[in-house]
Amino acid sequence: MSNNTEDFDATFLALKKVLKPYERRLVVQSDDDKNYFLVTRHIMKSKQPLWFAGVRKGKAYVSYHFVPIYCCPELAKGMSPELKKRMQGKGCFNFKSVDAKLFKELGQLTKSGLQKFSDPEFLRKMTTR
Fold first, then answer.
1. How many CB atoms lie within 10 A of CB 81?
2. Could you report the per-residue pLDDT of 38-86, keeping only the tens digit for each?
């Protein structure tokens, strides 16, 4: 087993740990050795649940997909430059190894995102899109 594979496995598990506390409030859509996704209980106009966040182990990095920051860019205010460097696109953070400091920051960001995604007014707007 290569170090890269071991790093990715550890990174995947550490990022998954960031989301695990939210399983009771959200719905686990996928949980295997490469994908772990959580969706909300709110159904969109498309008849699909509002997606919340997930971790995906790819070939080049492990990605933390975080929809609240895409829908609510104000969540990025105050984000550290180090975490911002890991951002690809509007709602994805890429990692090749465990970074406890940045994962802790992602944990706080995730908590803020769930607060936003739990706001009835916000959800009313989202579910009518």
1. 6
2. 999 988 888 899 999 999 999 999 999 999 999 898 999 989 999 999 9
pTM equals 0.91
Is the Cβ–Cβ distance between 112 and 66 less than 8 Å?
A: no
In terms of Cα–Cα distance, which of 85, 73, 57, 86 is closest to 113? 73
